[in-house]
Amino acid sequence: MKNEKDLNGIGGWLIIPIIGMIITIGMLFFEALDMFSYYSYDYEIASFIMIIDFAIIAIAGLALYNIFNHNKLGKTMAIIFYIFIAIVNLFSIEFAMVIGNIIWLLYFIKSKRVKQTLIN
Length: 120
What we know:
This protein is an all-alpha fold. The protein has one domain (4-117). 75% of the residues lie in helices and 0% in strands. It contains 6 helices and no strands. It has helices spanning 15-33, 35-38, 43-68, 73-91, 95-110, 112-117. Helix 4 (73-91) packs antiparallel against helix 5 (95-110). The protein is elongated and about 55 Å long. The mean pLDDT is 85.
């Protein structure tokens, strides 16, 4: 096991949720751009989904910005991101995704690397 000095900086398992957030931002951005073609008959549903998508994009963007700047707010924003995503996945009936969200949520709460990386 690495000693605690080796656990600072962005690396290890912390890279996986960062990549996931970047992919999420890209996917939701393109989904939002194409939203009205899917729901051309119901603008209320399309608008609601678009608002949720942009909220997730904003939360993920803030989390990434703060993580890359080694700011403590990055941990808080990542936790909010995974809670929000888990709630959305529950309503989407994507239970396997909820389990993954809970795993990464617990990682951000318990990880020594996260505590030592996000220190500012």
